[in-house]
């Protein structure tokens, strides 16, 4: 009564929900650290170290400034987790069925690697738009303070491409 059938829609939904929780919540929890890290990469003269970066951010934006980019982080990494965990199971079963039961067992490490890579391909496509907005919010002072401000501005300036410029580096990562 507490389980579900392996490979059922409920199974995939639960795997995806696990991905939302594990990726979306954890990445959102470390937004202040990510914000300072991104700012150190963009302006190392101003943000000299992690502690200096926290200090400068709090001085300029207050404690609330440490949360800049939380919404695109939560949405983007939740989508990535949904796809990563859910599609991993989809591809694992799909590729296993293609190989047959015995070959799937014999080649399980390669099967898991192929399923993981396939899932990550789609997960990064789901993440890229929100990651692009997050980076703009966090690293370009005055550009936008919220996701609602960043998305229309990015689309108006560069079109859809603004949201997917970072997908290839995500795949390489």
TrEMBL record:
<dbReference type="InterPro" id="IPR018108">
    <property type="entry name" value="MCP_transmembrane"/>
</dbReference>
<dbReference type="InterPro" id="IPR023395">
    <property type="entry name" value="MCP_dom_sf"/>
</dbReference>
<keyword id="KW-0813">Transport</keyword>
<dbReference type="GO" id="GO:0005743">
    <property type="term" value="C:mitochondrial inner membrane"/>
</dbReference>
<comment type="subunit">
    <text>Interacts with PPIF; the interaction is impaired by CsA.</text>
</comment>
<keyword id="KW-1133">Transmembrane helix</keyword>
<dbReference type="GO" id="GO:0005315">
    <property type="term" value="F:phosphate transmembrane transporter activity"/>
</dbReference>
<comment type="similarity">
    <text>Belongs to the mitochondrial carrier (TC 2.A.29) family.</text>
</comment>
<feature type="repeat" description="Solcar">
    <location>
        <begin position="10"/>
        <end position="94"/>
    </location>
</feature>
<feature type="repeat" description="Solcar">
    <location>
        <begin position="107"/>
        <end position="173"/>
    </location>
</feature>
<keyword id="KW-0472">Membrane</keyword>
<keyword id="KW-0999">Mitochondrion inner membrane</keyword>
<keyword id="KW-0812">Transmembrane</keyword>
<keyword id="KW-0677">Repeat</keyword>
<keyword id="KW-0496">Mitochondrion</keyword>
<dbReference type="InterPro" id="IPR044677">
    <property type="entry name" value="SLC25A3/Pic2/Mir1-like"/>
</dbReference>
<comment type="function">
    <text>Inorganic ion transporter that transports phosphate or copper ions across the mitochondrial inner membrane into the matrix compartment. Mediates proton-coupled symport of phosphate ions necessary for mitochondrial oxidative phosphorylation of ADP to ATP. Transports copper ions probably in the form of anionic copper(I) complexes to maintain mitochondrial matrix copper pool and to supply copper for cytochrome C oxidase complex assembly. May also play a role in regulation of the mitochondrial permeability transition pore (mPTP).</text>
</comment>
<dbReference type="GO" id="GO:1990547">
    <property type="term" value="P:mitochondrial phosphate ion transmembrane transport"/>
</dbReference>
<protein>
    <recommendedName>
        <fullName>Solute carrier family 25 member 3</fullName>
    </recommendedName>
</protein>
<dbReference type="Pfam" id="PF00153">
    <property type="entry name" value="Mito_carr"/>
</dbReference>
